[in-house]
Design goal:
It holds the Pfam family AAA_33. By secondary structure, the protein is α/β, with parallel strands linked by helices. It contains seven helices and five strands, in the order βαβααβαβααβα.
Length: about 170
């Protein structure tokens, strides 16, 4: 398979990390999640009002750091799988620019959970297991601020009882 930049987008709890991990294994590509970067920035006080994407988190700082790591991997000739919410056009623009600089195709995969009750159950279970994970109310606020994706992408609803991995791999081929 050709070298790719695969970028997952979608709210917390929809299943991005699970799918990104499966795609990374299938491609033999590193999976780069933004969450550890944002947590490290938060530990050093590099978060706060106005710092975040749509008003929370570390904003584009974490995404810039993630893009830098992805650029190193692309420079080594590997495909890269990015696992991040990518809630606003500015964040997604980083990946378009990186793909152009690296001369690799960008494949965007938007993941959502079409059943709000199921999404709430997932988010609350995740928060109970990891208090640093967003609460249901935080995810609802992020959803209200989430800018629609425009352009080519594969959209995956993780509530459909069909394994999405084969369709994702066909999209990437």
């Amino acid at each position: 398979m050709m070298q790719l930049l695969v970028v997952f987008a979608g709210l917390p709890g929809v299943g991005k990390s699970t799918l990104a991990g499966q795609v990374g294994v299938a491609l033999g590509a590193p999976v780069l999640p933004v969450d550890p970067i944002e947590r490290a920035l938060a530990r050093h006080g590099l978060t706060g009002p106005g710092a975040g994407l749509a008003g929370h988190g570390s904003g584009l700082v974490g995404y810039d750091a993630l893009a830098g790591l992805a650029e190193v991997q692309l420079g080594l000739g590997t495909s890269v799988v990015v696992d991040a919410v990518n809630p606003v056009a500015a964040a997604r623009g980083l990946w378009l620019d990186l793909a152009a600089r690296a001369g690799v195709p960008l494949r965007l995969i938007e993941v959502y959970c079409g059943d709000e009750a199921e999404l709430r159950r997932r988010v609350e279970a995740r928060h109970a297991a990891d208090p640093l994970a967003p609460t249901w109310e935080q995810v609802r606020r992020r959803g209200a601020e989430y800018e629609p994706l425009i352009g080519p992408r594969l959209v995956v609803d993780t509530t459909i009882a069909i394994d999405p991995l084969p369709a994702i791999l066909r999209y990437l081929a």
